[in-house]
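INTERNAL AUDIT FORM
Audit reference: QA-55
Scope: verify that the stored structure record matches its stored sequence.
Auditor: D.O.
Record contents follow.
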Amino acid sequence: MSDLKRTSNEAPIKEVLDRWLKAYGYEGKMKEMDVLEAWPEMMGTAVANRTSEIYIKNKKLFLKMDSSVMREELSHGKEVIIQRVNEKAGTEIINDIWFG
């Protein structure tokens, strides 16, 4: 039976994947996907249920809301949303929000 001990030149798969994502420029996209997936957790189910479209492009978070009242309320709290999104990502992935 072979010895399954890790040698010093082996790296955990997470470390290898992180390096690969960074090398090919996908690290930011992965963070964006994580944030978009966490939208209900960050903003609550009421906001998430009224969000019909959400995406990030050129450091802008684009939101399409089903409720004009909700859209108006969220537009007043843009800075808080930007802060939450960037905290979740661990870096600045957005600097503005556009509502549609």
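Auditor finding: record pair retrieved intact. The longest strand covers residues 51-57.
Action required: none
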